[in-house]
Amino acid sequence: MENRRRVVVKVGTSTLTHKTGRLNIRRVEKLVKILSDIHNAGNDIILVSSGSIALGMAKLGLMEKPDDTALKQTCAAVGQCELMYMYDKYFSEYSLTVAQFLLTKYILLEDRRKNVENALECVIERGIIPIVNENDTVAIDELELEVGENDSLAATVAQIAKADLLIILSDIDGLYDKDPYRHPDARLVREVTEITDEIKALAGGARRGTGGMVTKINAAEKAMKSGFDMIITNGREPENLYKIFDSIPVGTRFISQKER
Predict the structure, then answer these.
(1) What secondary structure does DSSP assign to 128-170, as a single string?
(2) What residues have CB less than 8 Å from 195, skipping those under 6 apart?
(3) What burial class does residue 211 get, using C-beta atoms within 10 Å of its C-beta: 0-12 exposed, 13-18 middle, 19+ buried?
(4) pLDDT, tens digit, 9 for 90 and up, residues 189-235
(5) Dist CA 164 CA 177 (whole Å)
(6) What are 36-44's contacts with CB under 8 Å, separation 24+?
(7) Which residues pair with 234 in a beta bridge?
(8) Lowest-confidence pick of 36-50, 84-98, 193-207
(9) What pLDDT, in 10s, does the model give residues 132-170?
(10) Is the CB of residue 156 less than 8 Å from the CB of residue 219?
């Protein structure tokens, strides 16, 4: 990581919350502290964060994710306020400012994404940490299809920001050769140099978030084709971020052609 400066970190709902759906305060505080420290060391950090629907559900006292699209939108609208309040509060404790970016796939079309690129660059140049999320309040396609697009969103943001590395914090250590929840002898795949049909077949199901390994493999494929690496590692251990910047192998690293 000696030459790395600009890194996109994607954090999933399962990392931010307990199984109850409520905020995991201890983990979030630790995550923000480590990201702030890495930023203070001279690195550009862009945070792509899920969690708005889960936090909205908790705020509204809902125990199960609603089936109704309008209610999901309501949870997203309420939860996004909670999410940004949380990040603003915790990052400000380390004298850092955050900025909110709510994006949709239409804003990220080739002929429109230049506006996003300009805004991101201006924010980053001023030492501000962008907090990016899918705008689930108005972008209902993903809500209705139950597709966790923040993994792919993170890869797209990394492309636009010309990032050196994409880190996805998940509820699992990385990509395994079989489902570790059902097979105790499953082994972690340390490096992937090509997204083959065999690699795609290893993708498992989702947990508390709406993504799962399938969307992470799709994000890795996009990252590798764009010339930057992607790492999947366990978000339950935010210290893994330090290990990555100290060049200590963690999780699964998807190595782009540029890095070989």
Answers:
(1) -EEEEEE-TTT-HHHHHHT--THHHHHHHHHHHTT-SEEEEEE
(2) 217, 220, 221, 224, 254
(3) buried
(4) 999 999 998 898 887 543 434 447 888 999 999 999 999 999 999 99
(5) 27
(6) 36/91, 36/94, 36/96, 37/94, 38/7, 38/241, 38/242, 38/245, 39/96, 39/127, 39/129, 40/94, 41/245, 42/5, 43/4, 43/5, 43/6, 43/7, 43/245, 44/5, 44/6, 44/7, 44/124, 44/161
(7) 170
(8) 193-207
(9) 998 877 765 554 434 446 898 999 999 999 999 999 999
(10) no
Q: List for the chain the helix, strand, coil content (%; round to 5).
A: 45, 15, 40
Compute the distance between CA of residue 176 and CA of residue 147 in angstroms, rounded to an integer: 21
Site of tokens 């395994």? 176
Say which residue the tokens 């999933």 belong to.
12
The span from the CA of 81 to the CA of 55, in Å, is 9
Tokens of 64: 């199960």
Both tokens of 81, joined, read: 């306020």
